[in-house]
């Protein structure tokens, strides 16, 4: 019953956390295409998402308190979508123009930062939103599914 009602939130959560971790799985390719062979650069690019998470939790939590959880969840989903699609469209070092490759690297870091903001805000906001709108009989299952779907996204 709960998945019938909240399937879109849960599916979005799986996809979001999958994409969030896919960067780490693709470190070898990121190193070759964006970071001039630097392992440190690759992992700093990954780390910027974790630096952004506290700020994202605060900002999206404030938005949720001020304008509602639905608005906050939608902002985080759109932010993750923009970050994911944007990363797929970036120019790499293989494009042949150094300035364009450097721009691609800068935009990559910005998009990863946006993903960090949105990832932190979404998990807390979805949990709170499900708690607020769920009936008493499914509150615990609903909030548990948020963390289960995040784990499934990491494992995929």
Describe how the helices and strands are arranged.
Elements: H1 2-25, H2 27-33, H3 39-67, H4 69-88, H5 98-133, H6 139-155
Helix pairs in contact: 1-5, 1-6, 2-3, 3-4, 3-5, 4-5, 5-6
Which shape, going by the Cα principal axes? Answer: elongated
List SSEs in N-to-C order.
HHHHHH
- Biggest sheet record: none
Helix percent reads over 70%
**Based on helices, strands and strand pairing, what is the structural class?**
mainly alpha
Query: Unreliable runs, pLDDT <50, ≥5 residues?
Result: none
Oligomer: single chain
Q: Output the radius of gyration.
A: 17 Å
Q: Into which percentage range does the β-strand content fall? A: under 5%
Concise synopsis of the structure shown:
The chain is mainly alpha-helical and 156 residues long. Helix content is 85%, strand content 0%.
Architecture overview:
This protein has helices spanning 2-25, 27-33, 39-67, 69-88, 98-133, 139-155. The model has no long low-confidence stretch (mean pLDDT 86). It is built from six helices and no strands. Helix 1 (2-25) runs parallel beside helix 6 (139-155), helix 3 (39-67) runs antiparallel to helix 4 (69-88) and helix 4 packs antiparallel against helix 5. By secondary structure, the chain is mostly helical.
Notable features of this structure?
elongated, mainly alpha, 156 residues, single chain
């Amino acid at each position: 019953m709960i998945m019938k009602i909240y399937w879109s939130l849960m599916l979005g959560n799986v996809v979001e956390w999958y994409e969030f971790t896919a960067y780490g799985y693709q470190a070898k390719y990121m190193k070759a295409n964006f970071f001039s062979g630097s392992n440190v650069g690759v992992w700093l690019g990954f780390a910027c998402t974790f630096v952004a998470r506290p700020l994202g939790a605060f900002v999206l939590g404030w938005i949720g308190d001020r304008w509602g959880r639905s608005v906050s969840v939608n902002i985080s989903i759109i932010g993750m979508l923009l970050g994911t699609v944007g990363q797929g469209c970036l120019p790499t070092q293989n494009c042949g123009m150094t300035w364009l490759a450097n721009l691609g690297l800068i935009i990559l870091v910005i998009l990863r930062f946006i993903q960090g903001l949105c990832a932190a805000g979404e998990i807390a906001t979805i949990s709170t939103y499900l708690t607020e709108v769920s009936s008493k009989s499914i509150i615990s299952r609903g909030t548990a599914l948020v963390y289960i779907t995040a784990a499934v996204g990491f494992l995929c």
